[in-house]
Automatic annotation (TrEMBL):
InterPro entries: UreD (IPR002669)
Annotated transmembrane regions: none
Gene (name only): ureD
Location within or outside the cell: Cytoplasm
Protein name per UniProt: Urease accessory protein UreD
Superkingdom assignment: Bacteria
Amino acid sequence: MRVSTKRVGGRTVLDGLRQSGSFKCLFPKARGGAMDAVLLNTAGGITGGDQFSFSGHVAANTALTLTTQTCERAYRAQPNQTGQIRNRIRVEPGARLNWLPQETILFNGSALDRRLNINLALDASLLMVEPLVFGRPAMGETLTDIRFRDRIEIRREGAPLFFDSVVLSGDLHAHLSKPFIANGAGATALTVLVAKDAERHLGPLREVLPETGGVSMIQPDVLVLRLLAVDDFTLRQTLLPVLQRLNGSDLPRCWMI
């Protein structure tokens, strides 16, 4: 899928769209001068052998929020098969990207390789979140056999700004149960804000985060927040007000349903 924006009369509007297969994009009513786009996997989830790719271009002085209609699900894969997700986005000068997908839920036996590449212009801004849920404990599911690779690369004019890589395999339940790894957490989220005024959020966020969360400035305009929670519900209780604060407005309606 490919999506691009342009600026018309002070508003962000769609410039180009190309999509195929089960990966679709919906465009709700615009909010203010920004544009929302909702990514939808009509297949209902990802399993071994599936391949999804997204390419985005946020034109100069436009604002684009990308979210998902619901949680993504990584289902059991066949042996020697891995599902792939590739997302690549360019954000031009004066533009703002809000990358706000809902949770990805890992099921036992899943195999997923996911990559996100964002390249920012010098004065572009970004709010990014990637929430991850480890199985469905309410259904009695334990993740004892899993393969998950996740790599996030944020660059500024091609130069590295923030890189994060996660590799999880085998008995994930036993791994996450260790006190100095996750102490039994069932969900996590990574949030990154790149903005000139990012530092003003540091103090207020530290006051509201639980003991399982942390936030810091890795550069004067780059704020990074990590959060662990016992389950998805508890994660959202903390994450939603954090995202609303960093976004400066309400989240897309998909998050509230």
